[in-house]
Specification:
The complex is a heterodimer. Chain A is mainly α. Chain A has one domain: MetI-like (MetI-like fold). Chain A contains 12 helices and no strands. The radius of gyration of chain A is 25 Å and the shape is globular. Chain A starts with a helix and ends with a helix. Chain B is an all-alpha fold. Chain B has a single domain, classed as Orthogonal Bundle (MetI-like fold). Chain B starts with a helix and ends with a helix. Classes of the chains: A mainly alpha, B mainly alpha. Chains A and B meet through α1, α3, α4, α5 and α7 of A and α1, α3, α4, α5 and α6 of B.
Chain lengths: 301, 260
């Protein structure tokens, strides 16, 4: 009877977890594995991959695409530029999100859900629509461009285009990633103990000290979590530079898209994708590790 | 203290304005009687009329709805199973496979599925897009369902089992009705994610298949027209409705960070 019960739960376990596991193995793990294999093949004559075994019977396995990535500086420059854009995005999101998350955490409980919902709602509107909105705002005929260029003309400077520029790309990157910073920051700030701040005030610490000595260090786990949630997707973005960027705003995502859809060099595209994955996983790992250490440190303090 | 909190209000209001002004501009200009999205001229519904007469747009909307219905249906079933499995059993592989598609940049899933389908000689189109959407929706449904299970009283299912119900009956008659709000919220989320998805669709749709986001993309690559504003407004209205309902059903949707 007991044995039957055990095998029954084991069967239930497989019945419940088996189908989603199988689906994700086929449509997530297998494609990822195929991409790793594609990265050590040669590009085909008409795109895609070269035959695995050529006429002379030689197996097509090589590391040429990896060598190309690390020897041609133009690709490394794109990686550095992407990381730089992602970093600027993260810092700008942090600056905007901190006061917002603080305010939500300090407001009365009954208002918090609404204030949070207002942060999350724009995230649920279509990604392309949010990019398109900036095309309108930064467009050459729009009020903002006319105002900026009016001021510049006053100082005798020539008109500058706002659209199709690094400025447009960064603004939109910050715009679409802001909610990812607010949520973990809020989740952290909400747990802070007001008594600590009151005690510091009683001991004579001014607002500036209270913030930098208490609130900010305690909020670091939230800062790290939010930074990872912003930095990682920002690193791999392609639609924003594709639509709002100029010719100098090519990021890793654009390079990957180019390799798969235009040049049709799959092995090299795969190498770029794998490097992006490695970078993303590494960063996620570091953020989790630092976050845990930070949390442990805060608990000790 | 007062001074500090009024400073906070200004900064927070600026952040809210940053989040909403762009979307409001899109909506307002969809009613603007001017081809240029530059200044307000007068009220019109012309762009919506043009939309209704645009066959490409209607075909794309049809494709998007068909894919979203299929993808949300299948991913809700698989995602619910995954959510229950994650809650009840200690598994090694499934948690990684469920969360990874959410954690990595979207483009990676798009290009790897592109190679996968092409190497298998699988024709790119509605079916490949739906299969791809299911893969990334499963995780979102699983998270919502697991959060619901975590907040549930497990003793109810145990009581049903003690009364002699088989695991299947206990699940169908006790657990499932209790987690239903989470399941429905997950389904609505999956529908929204699918109908809005651009990046993964872009790589898995092939040349002949157009969804609403793909059509919007090709339109804004050429020029900015108020017709895009009109279709954007309608799409935003739809997703707003779905998400508000989902959030009502599953308040944890807003507090996922606090629950996990």
């Amino acid at each position: 009877m007991a044995a039957k019960g055990v095998s029954g739960t084991r069967m239930a376990k497989w019945l419940v977890s088996g189908p989603p596991l199988l689906y994700l193995l086929v449509f997530f793990a297998a494609p990822a594995l195929i991409m790793v294999l594609a990265s050590v093949r040669s590009p085909g004559e008409f795109g895609g991959l070269a035959p695995l075994v050529d006429e002379s019977g030689r197996l097509d396995l090589n590391t040429e695409s990896y060598v190309r990535l690390f020897t041609e500086s133009v690709y490394l420059q794109v990686f550095v530029k992407s990381a730089w854009y992602a970093l600027l995005t993260t810092l700008a999101c942090l600056a905007l999100a901190y006061p917002l998350a603080t305010l939500i955490a300090k407001s009365p409980k009954k208002h918090r859900d609404l204030l949070l919902l207002l942060v999350i709602l724009p995230f649920w509107s279509n990604f392309l629509i949010r990019i398109y909105a900036w095309m309108i705002i930064l467009g050459p005929n729009a009020a903002l461009a006319r105002m900026v260029n009016g001021v510049l003309a006053w100082f005798g400077a020539g008109p500058v285009p706002l659209l199709f520029s690094a400025f447009a790309v960064l603004t939109c990157l910050v715009y679409v990633h802001l909610p990812f910073m607010v949520l973990p920051l809020y989740a952290n700030l909400e747990k802070h103990d007001q008594a600590l701040l009151d005690a510091a005030q009683d001991l004579g610490a001014n607002a500036w000290h209270r913030f930098w000595r208490i609130t900010f260090p305690l909020s670091l786990p939230g800062v790290y979590a939010g930074s990872a949630l912003v930095f990682i997707p920002a690193l791999g973005i392609f639609a924003i530079p594709d639509i709002l960027g100029g010719p100098d705003d090519t990021l890793i995502g654009n390079l990957i898209k180019q390799q798969f859809l235009e040049t049709r060099d799959w092995p090299f595209g795969s190498v770029l994708s794998i490097m992006l994955t490695v970078a993303a996983l590494l960063l996620a790992g570091i953020a989790a590790w630092v976050g845990r250490r930070g949390a442990a440190g805060a608990a000790r303090a | 203290m007062r001074r500090r909190s009024s400073w906070l209000w200004v900064a927070a209001l600026a952040a809210y304005a940053f989040l909403y002004v762009p979307l409001i501009i899109v909506v307002v200009y969809s009613f603007n009687d001017s081809r240029l999205n530059a200044e307000w001229v007068g009220f019109t519904l012309d762009w919506y009329r043009k939309l209704a007469a645009n066959d490409d747009m209607l075909a794309a909307a049809g494709n998007s709805l068909l894919i979203a219905f299929t993808a949300s249906l299948v991913s809700t079933v698989l995602g619910t199973m995954a959510g229950v499995a994650l809650h009840r059993y200690r598994l090694r592989l499934l948690p990684i496979l469920v969360l990874a598609p959410i954690a990595i940049p979207e483009i990676l899933m798009g290009v790897s599925l592109l190679i996968f389908f092409v190497l298998l000689n699988f024709t790119l189109g509605l079916v490949s897009v739906a299969l791809a959407h299911i893969a990334f929706c499963i995780g979102f449904v699983a998270i919502v369902v697991r959060a619901r299970l975590a907040g549930m009283d497990e003793s109810l299912t145990e009581a049903a089992r003690d009364c002699g119900a088989t695991p299947a009956r206990a699940f169908r008659h006790v657990t499932l009705p209790l987690i239903m709000p989470g399941v429905v919220a997950g389904a609505l989320m999956a529908f929204t994610l699918s109908i809005d998805d651009f990046v993964i669709t872009f790589f898995t749709a092939g040349a002949g298949t157009v969804t609403l986001p793909l059509l919007i993309y090709s339109m804004i690559k050429i020029s900015v027209t108020p017709e895009v504003n009109a279709v954007s407004t309608l799409l935003m209205l739809l997703t707003l409705l779905l998400i508000v309902v989902a959030a009502k059903l599953s308040p944890t949707l807003l507090r996922s960070d606090r629950e996990t």
